[in-house]
């Protein structure tokens, strides 16, 4: 992961917050509203909105729910958060 972060820093690329990535890659292409996604995922609309806006981070519980909804893995979401956190720490 350190190599990824180093590459991003040198490239001047800020990795997206997992919430923004979730909206752009999973909700928008499928025309799924945040309210509908929250219900399907099993979280409150408020939590999904704050996550999508980058105000809360992925934890293990949320990662599991996102993984189920997106047919990815919880590790995918936790790694994305770790890269973002490491990048933020470097800046």
Name the features.
single chain; 91 residues; mainly alpha; 434 Repressor (Amino-terminal Domain); 6 helices; 70% helix; elongated
Taking the sheet with the most strands, its summary is:
none
Summarize the amount of helix as a percent range: over 70%
Average of per-residue pLDDT values: 92
What fraction of residues sit in β-strands? under 5%
Unreliable spans are none
The radius of gyration over CA amounts to 13 Å
Task: Briefly note the structural class of the backbone.
Answer: mainly alpha
Can you put this structure into words, describing what you see?
- The structure is a single chain.
- The protein is mainly alpha-helical and 91 residues long.
- The protein has one domain: lambda repressor-like DNA-binding domains (434 Repressor (Amino-terminal Domain), Orthogonal Bundle), CATH 1.10.260.
- It contains six helices and no strands.
- The longest helix is centred in the C-terminal third of the chain and has 17 residues.
- It is elongated.
- The two termini are 16 Å apart.
């Amino acid at each position: 992961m350190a190599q990824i972060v180093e590459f991003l820093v040198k490239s001047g690329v800020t990795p997206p917050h997992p919430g923004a990535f979730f909206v752009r890659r999973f909700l928008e292409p499928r025309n799924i509203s945040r309210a509908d996604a929250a219900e399907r995922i099993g979280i409150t609309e408020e939590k999904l909105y704050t996550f999508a806006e980058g105000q809360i981070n992925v934890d293990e519980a949320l990662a599991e729910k996102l993984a189920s909804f997106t047919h990815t893995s919880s590790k995918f979401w936790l790694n994305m958060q770790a890269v973002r956190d490491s990048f933020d720490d470097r800046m």
